Every structure is written in C-alpha cells, then in structure tokens.
C-alpha cells in the first residue's frame, strides 16, 4: 500500500512532533511504500511574508527526520516545490472544486480565527445572538427540516459578519486595539491560497495515487475533501484517481515545560537540537503540582507534567516507586525532575549524536531531497500525462 504524509517546514522538531507524527512514520516505512513530503508551498499559506526562513527550516526539519530514523533507503523523501506538477494539478482541481466545500471545511475558519486570536470573540457573538436567532427561526413561515442545523448555519454566518464588521470599523473601534489585531491582519490571512490549501493537500495525495494518509481526527475533513475531489474528477472525466483512506493515528498531547501542549509558539518545547545542558535547564523549569509547595507535601502525580514524562522515559519498575513516594510526600519536585532528566536524556542522547553526525555533511541532506524529488517528479509526470489525456487540455 502506498502511504503519503508530509510536514510544513517550521524549523527544528520537538518531542511533540516525534510522538504525534514521526514515531508512526517509522512504523509505516517498515510496512508500506512510504512517501514523506517537505510541504514548503504549504508553508506559504500563512508564512508568505517570511520566505527567508524557509530554506533553513527545511534543512533543520529534514536533519531531525534523518536523526530520528526516517530512512531514504526505505522511504521517498522529497520537496513539494521541486515537483512543479503539483501546481498544474492544483489549478485543474481548483476548476472543479465548489467554493462551498472549502468554506464549509471546519478547520478553515478555526485556523484563521486562532491565528488572529479572535476565537473568543466569535464565541461571544454567537452567545449574544443565539436567542434572537431562535426567535427569528421560530417565526419563519416555512417548514424547517433540521432546526439545530439551521440555527448553527445562521449563527456561523452572523458571527462571521459581526467579526468582519469589527475589522471594518462598524463596531467599537477600540476592540481591535484590545485584541491586538488590525484590519490588515484580518485580510492578510484571507487569501485564496489559505482558503484553497485543502485542494493543494488533495493534489499532494492524489498526484502520487496514494492509498492512505496517516492523520489525527482533526485532519479527517481534509481527507474526506480529497476523496470528494477524486470522485468528482473520476465522474467527470473517467476513472483516474483512487479514493485515499485515512489512517487514524493516536496523537498524544505531550505537555511542554509549562504544562500546556508542547508548541513552538508557546516557547515551551524540548527540541532534538537542544544540548544536554539546555535540556537540563528546561527540565528544571518544568511546572509541577501547584499544591506541592514543599518537599514534604503530598503530591498528585496524576496531574503533574513531570510524572507524565516519567511514564514514558523512566524505567517502568521505578515509575511506581516515584508515584508512591511523591504521593506520600517523600520525594521532592527537584529530585523528581532530576530523575526524569536521566530517562529523557537517555532517550535523546543517541538522537543528538546522530544529528551532529548529519550536520557535519549538510550537503547530504539536500542531495537526499534532490534525488527524492526527481523520483517524485517522474511519478507525478506519469499522473499528469493521464490527467491531460482525460481532460483533453494541455
């Protein structure tokens, strides 16, 4: 089975990337034909003003892939922008993809509002007009087939309009200052590419006729859209593309040093590029049980991020002992962190050493991507010859 996956190049990888993506890739490359893509065109959907960062981000990311065991002898590693056929098929798919499919994609608006930090504003507007919408719908002189669905449809449309009104200056101009966003920020994220990036994702999958894509539940709408585009093309022009299946993967939310989900944007991540001393300092800054203020206070391991790490990285026979001693107030947080550091550093040390070895020959990273991109291009060219024959254009 042919499996395709990819990552946007945002720089060095952290532990969350490993447990959320790479660990599963390592398993897949031993079981299937795997293609792993550097999605640098996708990086432009939100980072088109910071293109100078992309080449270094690509190198950092692929160095981490290789350090963690992604093997170019087993998997095809390639750079999306080096395969120009992606752009051609994106154009053709754009011609047949209804705009409503993209606007109804639940992650489109969520991503945009999260980027602008206005999700709370949307919730406030929805809550404020919900009763009015219900009253209005109850007075409609028409039969309503699905009242709850229609209510949500109206609420979405009204909240979007109200948010746009804020940015246009029709509602409380000082609100934008409080939110620390501007009209320009709002429209800078409202690009054709941002709306259409799920179509480009469909291209990434279908141009290689991949049978499956490993995703978390939040990405299921994108795979379903790829299936819809595949069906629509096949119905219009003849059987050409498979309907890719989603391979649901568990994506555990590894906490960062502040207890929140590990993320570069939160500045709370542990990177594979961290030195041993940098790792030690981060571990000692880890949040712990806020009620355990002194060494002798009883702790609550079940809510402590440090204990979460113990369950993954510490020898299992010691985990129960740590849990028992913490609960009884016999183990202080400083000593607990030192024990956690030992296990975590033992896991990271060989990756760190492999990473250093790869960095001594950086050209090799780009050679691997170059060879992989040439192979990917041949596959894409074959698909596009078939597509052009089907649509009688080109």
Distance between the termini: 30 Å
Summed up, the domain count is 3
- Determine the CATH superfamily of the largest domain: HUPs
Alpha-carbon Rg, integer: 25 Å
**Biggest sheet statistics:** 3 strands, parallel
Helix content: 55-70%
> Which CATH class of the largest domain applies here?
Alpha Beta
**SS-derived structural category:** mainly alpha
Molecular shape: globular
CATH architecture call of the largest domain: 3-Layer(aba) Sandwich
Under CATH, the topology of the largest domain can be stated as Rossmann fold
Order of helices and strands: EHEHHEHHHHHHHHEHEHHHHH
Estimated share of beta-strand residues: 5-15%
Q: Got a strand count? A: 5
- Mean of the pLDDT scores? 93
**How many alpha or pi helices?**
17
How is the largest sheet built, in terms of strand order?
1-2-3
Low-confidence stretches: none
Give the topology.
Layout: E1 2-7, H1 15-31, E2 33-38, H2 40-47, H3 54-67, E3 75-79, H4 85-96, H5 99-103, H6 106-116, H7 119-138, H8 147-168, H9 174-179, H10 183-188, H11 192-206, E4 212-215, H12 220-237, E5 245-248, H13 276-284, H14 305-313, H15 316-327, H16 333-359, H17 362-391
Parallel strand pairs: 1-2, 2-3, 4-5
């Amino acid at each position: 089975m042919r499996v395709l996956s990819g990552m946007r190049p945002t720089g060095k990888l952290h532990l969350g990337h490993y447990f959320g993506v790479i660990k599963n890739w390592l398993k897949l490359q031993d079981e299937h034909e795997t293609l792993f893509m550097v999605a640098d065109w996708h990086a432009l959907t939100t980072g088109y003003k910071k293109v100078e960062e992309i080449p270094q981000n690509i190198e950092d990311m692929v160095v981490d892939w290789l350090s963690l065991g992604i093997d170019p002898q087993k998997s095809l590693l390639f750079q999306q922008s080096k395969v120009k056929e992606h752009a051609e098929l994106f154009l053709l798919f754009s011609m047949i993809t209804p705009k409503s499919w993209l606007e109804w994609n639940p992650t489109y608006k969520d991503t945009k509002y999260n980027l602008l930090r206005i999700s709370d504003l949307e919730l406030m507007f929805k809550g404020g007009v919900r009763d009015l919408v219900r009253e209005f719908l109850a007075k409609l002189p028409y039969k309503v087939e699905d009242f709850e669905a229609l209510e949500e449809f109206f609420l979405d449309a009204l909240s979007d309009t109200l948010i746009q009104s804020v940015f246009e200056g029709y509602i409380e101009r000082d609100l934008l200052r409080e939110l620390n966003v501007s009209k320009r920020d709002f429209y800078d994220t409202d690009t054709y590419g941002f709306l259409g990036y799920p179509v480009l994702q469909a291209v990434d999958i279908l141009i290689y006729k991949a049978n499956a894509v490993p995703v978390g539940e939040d990405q299921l709408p994108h795979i379903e859209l790829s299936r819809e585009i595949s069906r629509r093309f096949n119905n219009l022009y003849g059987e050409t593309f498979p309907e890719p299946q989603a391979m649901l993967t568990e994506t555990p939310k590894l906490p960062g040093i502040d207890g929140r989900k590990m993320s570069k944007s939160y500045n709370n991540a542990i990177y594979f590029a961290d030195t041993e001393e940098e790792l030690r300092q981060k571990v000692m800054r880890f949040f712990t049980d806020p009620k355990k203020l002194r060494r002798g206070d009883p702790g609550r391991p079940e809510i402590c991020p440090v204990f979460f790490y113990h369950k993954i990285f510490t020898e299992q026979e010691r985990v129960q002992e740590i849990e028992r001693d913490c609960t009884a107030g016999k183990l202080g947080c400083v000593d607990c962190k030192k024990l956690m550091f030992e296990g975590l550093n033992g896991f990271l040390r060989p990756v760190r050493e492999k990473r250093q070895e790869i960095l001594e020959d950086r050209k090799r990273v780009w050679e691997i991507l170059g060879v992989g991109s040439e192979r990917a291009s041949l596959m894409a060219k074959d698909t596009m010859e078939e597509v052009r024959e089907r649509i009688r254009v080109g």
